[in-house]
Description:
Layout: H1 3-22, H2 24-43, H3 48-64, H4 66-71, H5 79-82, H6 87-122, H7 136-165
Helix pairs in contact: 1-7, 2-3, 3-7, 6-7
Amino acid sequence: MGFLEKLYLGIDTFSNRIGRIISWTAIVMVMVQFLVVVMRYIFSLGFIWMQESVLYLHSILFMLGAGYTLLHEGHVRVDIFYREHGERGKAIVDFVGSIVFLLPVCILLWWWSWPYVAQSWSILESSRETSGIHAVYALKTLILMFAALIALQGVSMMLRSLLTLTGHKTQHAREDGAHV
């Protein structure tokens, strides 16, 4: 196994692990939302921090789970160019798409978000509500993490495509970390 193959398989394994860990936030989010509804409509109680925690959990789930979703081809793609191609054609579309669209968008997202996130950290931005979650700066950091995780998975996709185009047989990292 060559260096490039080890690299993309390592990235895929990392994305799988992150995705499996982050997937648990969906269950927690549903449970918290259920509690918010029950407390409000049965006991006439409401806590802003609980309501805000649903937003935080939702953000964590989607922002940090995006690389995992890309790995497992769960994002929308333009099937006009993709579905009719064989393995080599799909590798060309993935390679060009990663270099021309995915990585530049991730770089721009990071570049434009950095001052926004840094400003939030500099003042330790908190909820507008007194009893809210006082970690808005951490929530905004998810934007940078999203860009990094998507870019990392884009590099993996690009490396896999490059190896396919050069005639190498590529593997995929399974969710349990094994390679197939």
